[in-house]
Amino acid sequence: MEGGGSSRRWRFASPNPAVAAAGERSIQRHLRDLHGCLDERGPRPVIPLSHGDPSSSLSFRTAPEAVEAVAAALLSGDFDGYASRDTNLAACRAVAEYLSCDLPYKLSPDDVLLTSGCTQAIETVMSVLGQQGFNILLPRPGYPKHEAHAVFHKMEVRHYDLVPERGWEVDLEAVEALADENTVAIVITNPNNPCGTVYTYEHLSKIAGTANKLGMLVISDEVYGHLVYGSTPFVPMGVFGDTVPILTLGAISKRWAVPGWRFGWIAICDPKCILKETKVFHSLTSFKMLTTDPATFVQGSIPHIMKNTHDEFFSKIIRLLKECAEICYSEIKEIKCITCPCKAEGSFFMMVKLDISQLSDISDDVDFCRKLAKEESVMVLPGTALGIENWLRITFASDPAKLKQGLERIKSFCLRHQSHVN
Question: Domain named Aminotransferase class I/classII large: which ranges (predicted)?
Fold first, then answer.
């Protein structure tokens, strides 16, 4: 048999370079790296404080009403095939009604596009807007999937800063300086991943006004919507749909603690129908014809999940997140080389600053996370993965006892590596 030696020229030897460029911006790449640093034979269990999957903790089990709705949908046998128009319409109507509760106008089922999780919502929006020669404004630090898909579609990415001294608010002066006639959109995340901040009504109003002034769309990632436990209430960006057209991205993954169910949406919050006039709406619906829908049985269960989940479930999750955020903030204050500019008020995350000068044998945030994984079996995400060096993102959506244990291990690690140079 003839071998496949290097002398032979294969015509598929040059895959799309945009794929590798986009993949470099994924959190998964950093998580795989950290997993490779773990001592699998270590005597202590791994404590993952690096990614936002609350379902891994028994404390964050989803609502029994949600489980019952999915079980009923499966047992009925009515949702084993492709989704019918009626199934899709019912799910869209449920999402529209759910979101409309917080808006000054009503969304219709036609304003909602269903996606396989919020990740596919990001992919869809970036695929529709992404063209060479255009640019998009993304936050720094920020969730890198937005950037990965923008890069894949050859858009120029321009980063605006979130200001830690102002509670991680958007630097709107920088936004105005960055934008030009080729800027198509600004992305915000509220409640924020990775910073844990919740934007006020006044700040969101200023963002909407700035976007209107610059003639750009607002893409609002609200996958952590309603997961707030501080003094600032959650305000959906869609409230300002009369000021500027908004694409709201969301999912049940975080509020219901079911990321594996892969049900998300794009909501077109545009009462003036600007996106229909500019053909963006048509392009979004056309692109959805090229992709897969959420699993049919999940679509079939959504009306029941959104209508029947008791408020007690949501209240319990909020109390638990508040407790865990307090634990994280108070424990971090005891670690000399790590500081937190502000307590988290929403989502599952806290961004903390790492002072490398106080540590020996640690070169940067990536080195810190690798050695922490190896020595303490604790995983936290380096800020480099989110566009900001020598910071760390800590996830506290965990069982409180396990969270305390993980933070104690971080404290022990920092003491062991503490520099003795004054």
Answer: 45-410
Beta-bridged to residue 110, according to DSSP, are none
CA-to-CA distance for 45 and 405, rounded, in angstroms?
11
The 8-class DSSP code of residue 168 comes to T
Residue pair 195/141 in contact by the 8 Å Cβ criterion: yes
Q: In this structure, what token pair is assigned to residue 141?
A: 């630090």
Using the CB atoms, write b or e for 26-53: b if 16+ within 10 Å.
Answer: ebeebbeebeeebeeeeeeebbbbbbbb
Q: Does pTM surpass 0.85?
A: yes
Helices (H), 215-278: 274-277
The 8 Å CB, 24+ separation contacts for 317-321 are 317/60, 317/227, 317/255, 317/257, 318/227, 318/228, 318/229, 319/229, 320/59, 320/60, 320/400, 321/227, 321/229, 321/348, 321/396, 321/397
pLDDT of residue 4: 55
pLDDT at residue number 1: 45
Q: How far is residue 202 from each of residues 104, 198, 421, measured CA to CA in Å?
A: 16, 12, 46
Pick from 367, 415, 107: which is nearest to 239 by CA?
107
pLDDT band at 295 (very low <50, low <70, confident <90, very high): very high
Q: What is the DSSP letter of 346?
A: B
Write out 357-407 in H/E/C secondary structure.
Answer: HHECCCCCHHHHHHHHHHHHCEECEEHHHHCCCCEEEEECCCCHHHHHHHH
